[in-house]
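Need residues for this backbone.
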């Protein structure tokens, strides 16, 4: 918690992280699942291969959740290009992720920005 956010972080250390690096390390160390060193779109592709896509109403703790960003909202809802952010579902409508000031943290994805930008989820556990 609190590890500083740096977009495009190196992936070689855990002193700073971006969203996909956080998911990479969490899945690697917590579940021994290799999600690759790519970004959120790459992790979605890997997640579909290793597991399955799940509906919002079926989310369980540990599911990998994907969101659009201001930059990716221009793409169609069904397009992989719509994905621009990734985190891990923590239960009770919360996502564990990293972005901006505050670093790794929980956010409420049941309402507001996170709900409006939710794209899809995969289950690999």
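Answer:
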């Amino acid at each position: 918690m609190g590890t500083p956010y740096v977009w495009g972080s190196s992936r070689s250390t855990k002193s700073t992280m971006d969203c996909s690096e956080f998911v990479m390390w969490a899945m690697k160390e917590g579940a021994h699942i290799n999600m690759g060193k790519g970004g959120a779109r790459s992790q979605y592709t890997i997640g579909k291969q290793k597991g399955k896509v799940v509906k919002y109403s079926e989310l369980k703790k540990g599911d990998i959740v994907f969101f659009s960003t201001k930059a990716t909202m221009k793409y169609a809802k069904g397009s992989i290009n719509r994905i621009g952010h990734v985190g891990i579902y923590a239960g009770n409508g919360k996502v564990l992720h990293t972005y901006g000031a505050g670093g790794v943290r929980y956010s409420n994805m049941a309402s507001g920005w996170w709900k409006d930008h939710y794209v899809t989820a995969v289950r690999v556990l």
